[in-house]
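For the sake of transparency, this paper describes our internal protein records without simplification. Because each token names a local backbone shape, the row as a whole describes the fold. One such record is reproduced below, unchanged from the form in which we store it.
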Amino acid sequence: MDRFNAMRVFTRIVELGGFAKAADSLHMPRASVTVLIKQLEAHLGVQLLHRTTRQVSPTLDGAAYYQRCVSLLSDLEEAEGVFKDSQPRGMLRVEMPAAIGQRVVFPALPEFTRRYPLIELEIGLNDRPVDLIREGVDCVLRGGLTLDDSLVARPLVLMDQVTCASPGYLQARGVPQFLEALDGHQMVEYFSSVTGKRYGLEFQIGDEVRLIDLPKQVSVDSALGYLAASEAGYGLVQVPYYHAAQRLREGRLQEVLGHCLPPPLALTALYPAHRQLSRRVRVFVDWLVDLCVRPQSGFRR
């Protein structure tokens, strides 16, 4: 039995919650995964996993062994990187909002892959919350507050935001010149499909943030839908500048209240603590830090 390979398979089962998912992610036959775990449990003399028809989870011994495996595998990867060559290698799984991926990351990504040709990227584009450990994700990009203290948070940039609406909407309702003129206007409401939290409009007034909740006819739970609803004439929205820049240039949306901006929105890279020693994660996040502060990224006006 290859003990390091068995440990790698075991950690992936714990992270993904199943033998089949682990086998697929590692490109291994499912039967081989099952055999390896049986051999590993026999070698250690303990049961590592609870198996049911719906879920696989670690036993108490398995949870303790998982933590040791993660540490050992990280040390092994680091040691091999020193003696083999200077290039990090292997699979890197990343999740990010679709708009950031399409407008910022992918246009610059060839630069990263030329620099690190041995890293294989698997990139998910979505706005949904991600369980990094359970889903086997190495790194996730998220805007707004980070609420999970179990993850390492690396600040990337403060994104400028704008308030905007469609020209047709503003022609019908009027262009507000100050906050008090928002009476009689409506907004597109953004809500979280996970927490149910609903978001109004925010404006930075000195050191304070003023929240204004306008009537709404349409509510959405995705960033792309949020802008699309505003473009269709359903009201005011507030989005990071990069996300609306093309629509603003083309005249499909129009900025309002430019003298009273929304507070900037933090963009952060999050990754599990045990991933911070991974050279793949380190070089990717370092590259993102550099990318996000470039003028061409569009995050700042």
Q: What stands out?
A: The chain has a mean pLDDT of 87. The longest strand covers residues 151-159.
